Amino acid sequence: MPNFKWATRTAVLAAVAIVGAGVISTPASAANNIVYFGGNGSTATCDGYMLCVYPNTSYKGSAIGSRNGASEDDMRDYYINDSISSIINNSGNAYCFYSDTFYKGLTFQIHAGEKWPAVNGYINDKISSWKVGNC
Ligand SMILES: [Ca+2]
Known about the structure:
The chain is an alpha+beta fold. It has a single domain (33-132), classed as Gamma-B Crystallin, domain 1 (Sandwich). 18% of the residues lie in helices and 30% in strands. The structure holds calcium ion (CA).
């Protein structure tokens, strides 16, 4: 019964694929709220996100947006680590940005609803984590 055997093998491969997808999605659960998009200079590119960070000033470059605005303890997970130059905060929360991972190093605070076309020079191209709330 070659057809039955083929079907069984296909089912096993499908099950392995499903398990594999589960393994990938579990550690990236927070990252699933991150979306990559292209910043074109308009603050409207951040519509629909709580927080957006851009590698270039004036909301340009290959940016990322956070749907839920959660804290991110290690931006090394994303290519934008150590390159953030502008920020849009559409949330009702303040944020503290840090020059190092895991909420360490120099800090830079923005308030609810603020848009920063150019972050202050001392933190430019240095942000590696951020936390919801005041510094
Ligand atoms: Ca930059």
